[in-house]
Amino acid sequence: MGYDYDLFVIGAGPGGLAAAKQATEYGATVAIAEQAQAGGGCVNRGCIPKKLMVYAAAFTRLDQDAIAYGWSACERQFDWQRFVRARNQEIERLQQTQVQALQDAGIAFIHEHASFVDDHTLVVGDRKLTAKDILIAVGGQPIRPKIDGIEHALVSDDLFNLEALPKHIAILGGGYIGVEFASILRGLGCRVTLMNRETCILPGFDDDLATTVRQGLIDRGIQSLCSTTIAAIEPASEGFNLTLEGDRPETLLVDTILCATGRAPRLDELKLDKAGVKADKTAIAVDGDSRTNQPHIFAVGDCTNRLQLTPVARAEGKAVAATILGQDPEALNYDHVPSAVCSYPEAASVGLSEAKARETYGDKVCAYRTEFQPLFYSLTDRSQISFIKVVAQGDTGRVLGIHMVGDHAGEIIQSLTVALQLGVTKQDLDRTIGIHPSSAEEVFSL
After folding, report:
1. Whole-angstrom Cα distance, residue 123 to residue 274?
2. Gap between the Cα atoms of 18 and 22, Å rounded
3. Which residues are catalytically annotated?
């Protein structure tokens, strides 16, 4: 049977784009369908616009620190609308760059919704197309818990379309998304109350890392409520009354509510049942090669039950292209994927937390940690504690995880990821000479 394409990709996010480009390099004919904008959530509603907001928020403290370094004080006013225009212009440029790259590679970009007719056929806009292999890379979307009045809450996507900054925002959810937006909005002058149903913040991260970040947020004036959630939301004349339950049962008046309680795959309109693809409400089931129960249909990124990170989706997409076209890709190692929290203070981590390491290795785990104040803050009137922790096997010295809170934590931990993948030991770190004065050198003197 002849097909219209060797590979058809549903979704032009990082995973889909990477797979499409890689497949064309192997000589396949490829099409990609996207009903929204090229680049997916990362470019349009996630990593990139959020990081630009992080940069914007940083100027408040940089202006204050400049005075300590001999610069004259000056009055600045932040123009939210001016920033939004500049940010959106950059996002549009990135969208156009992605589309141009597809065209240059000979990939058919179809700006339409796609859904299955059968396991080799798709309805794309008003036409039917067939493909030998199909990749699902539709990403995820924010979800809202079942709370009375939750329709009044925003989700993370909505924050990029605010016409004005909130005066007092309540953020429900202490994961990295909630923490990052709490930090950003506080930096832009908003009053922020951050709450989480179970732990305080950053579940899944090392406990010491989470504690250090939380203290840094509190020092900046962010109210952090542990084991507290919203029971009900009611409109009020000046915003919304929130009825809280848990450790802090009280009523809170705010003008904006952000729900940052998780994400779910965008599967509702794919009609996976017509292709015989198995999925539940949380993910598409895949094997180690990103293959669904249908051997010629694959899925990568946030629509699966694996790590929801842009570089992971990109690596999975490339691996799928190699698998389909017989290039024998290396299996992805999910144990050493670094992650960062783009808050202030910044945090980053790779490998096992101390708690997870002890679950696996028991008493044969040693944790080495240090707290220090970077040289930069020695002239300023504020204390900013940085933190580094190395988790290792006590009998072999093999490093199991590295965790950091402090300026440039993401860049530092990213570089150390290679060492973890190569089996670095605590003794190797001890023998390494660092750059002085720097924060990174503290890793080698624990």
Report:
1. 12
2. 6
3. 436
Handedness of CA 304, 11, 173, 239 (dihedral sign): negative
Q: Can you tell me the distance from the alpha carbon of 181 to that of 112, in angstroms, rounded to the nearest whole number?
A: 31
CA distance 349 to 315: 19
pLDDT tens per residue, range 67-103: 999 999 988 899 999 999 999 999 999 999 999 999 9
Which residue in 261, 65, 102 sits closest to 181, CA to CA? 261
pLDDT 10s digits, 408-432:
999 999 999 999 999 999 999 999 9
pLDDT confidence band for 268 (50 / 70 / 90): confident
- Bridge partners of 339, per DSSP, are 349
CA pair distance 98, 104, nearest whole angstrom: 10
Residue 56 dihedral angles phi and psi, to the nearest 5°? -60, -40
Average pLDDT in the 127-149 region?
96
3-state DSSP assignment of residue 160: coil
The pTM (predicted TM-score) of the whole model is 0.95
**1 pLDDT tier (thresholds 50, 70, 90):** low
**What DSSP string describes 208-267?**
HHHHHHHHHHHHTT-EEETTEEEEEEEEETTEEEEEEEESS--EEEESEEEE-S-EEE--
- Degrees (nearest 5) of the Cα angle 346, 349, 354? 120
Best CA proximity match to 304, nearest among 116, 122, 136, 175: 136
Domains in the chain (CATH in brackets) are 5-142+264-334 (3.50.50.60), 150-261 (3.50.50.60), 345-445 (3.30.390.30)
